[in-house]
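Quick one, tokens below:
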């Protein structure tokens, strides 16, 4: 079962499922809008669990800029 660990509406959502931590970033462009999805690797996961959202801020920024390098779920 997917459990939300942390969220900042329209900025980021952090979920835990099956001992994995997944980061979801909503972006409005390109149309129709997408959720950009990334599963943290072991070192990112450990840093996130110890430090919190600050540990993955660079990943969040990269996801916003280089969204096409990540899994994209359309809002439609």
């Amino acid at each position: 079962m997917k459990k939300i660990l942390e969220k900042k509406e329209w900025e980021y959502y952090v979920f835990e499922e099956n001992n994995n931590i997944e980061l979801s970033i909503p972006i409005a462009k390109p149309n129709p809008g997408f959720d950009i999805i990334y599963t943290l690797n072991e070192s990112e996961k450990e840093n996130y669990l110890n430090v919190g959202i600050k540990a993955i801020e660079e990943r969040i920024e990269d996801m916003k800029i280089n969204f096409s390098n990540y899994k994209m779920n359309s809002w439609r």
